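Contributing: when you submit paired examples, paste them exactly as shown. First protein:
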Amino acid sequence: MKRHLPGLHSEGPRGDQVLQGIFLVQVDRAYYRWHPQKPFFVLSFAILEPQDFLNRKISGRLYATTKALWPMNWFLRDFDYDRDLLGRDEVDEKALVGLTGVLRTSRKIFAGRTYVDLAGFAPCSEWEFISKDARDGVVAGGPGDIQLHAD
């Protein structure tokens, strides 16, 4: 069966269109991917604020290696993940969906490819305390040197 997909022939989004900045987000999807050296979670976030980016998505990876567990713990704690599951060292993909919090992203280039770096997290209660200038500092491509409070 043939499917007509308008715009398929045109060039897709380029790496320099990676959204960088601070966003209030909600976890839309979460998948665990096993890899022999670097297992990771693929997280898809729906942007809730700033309003200009409402309904856009940001996807990134959180690695689950021994050395990279601190960012995972930081994410889970700040996004108010179930304390009982966290206390048992368990991550339930279904329990991640719907969690909200503040996310700081930046652009990372590795081997000539551009990736979204999930650079910082904060509880959603801190969104109102983040300066309006920082919240309005969202860029597609350019430098992402916005600082986000980290406990």
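Second protein:
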Amino acid sequence: MKRREFIQGASILSLGALTGCSSTSKTLASDVQSNIIDNAIVLPSSNVHSAQPSIVAWGKKRIGVIKNSDDSFSANILTCTHRGCTLSKAEKNYVCPCHGARFTHQGKLIKGPAEHDLASLDVTVRDQFITIHLPATSDQ
């Protein structure tokens, strides 16, 4: 095998590996089981805590849900308001892996380059279940 053929083959394999990594990084993990019922996500309230947010999958998006100090709940779509990257959960906030924006677990902007808070969703609690009300129309 000639050196040029080897380099071309290795380049194609590397590109394939990177493409594979890219697609798996878009796989949206959720750490809480939930159900979508009548345009709402329903999950047991016992699965959501105040120390760290729980992540719920919604189509191609993720939603962060956390119990607040006043026993209410906050739910935010984990899409950065700067360029639309999916946020990561950090110890004290959500972080954009693309450009470093940071948001509180309640969705408030801490640090740019984003200029707006995260999109929040209405949450109701009944019995032992949390209902996250989804927008009427979405581009999940």
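If you have annotations for the second protein, write them as plain sentences, like these:
The longest strand covers residues 61-67.
Residues 1-27 form one domain.
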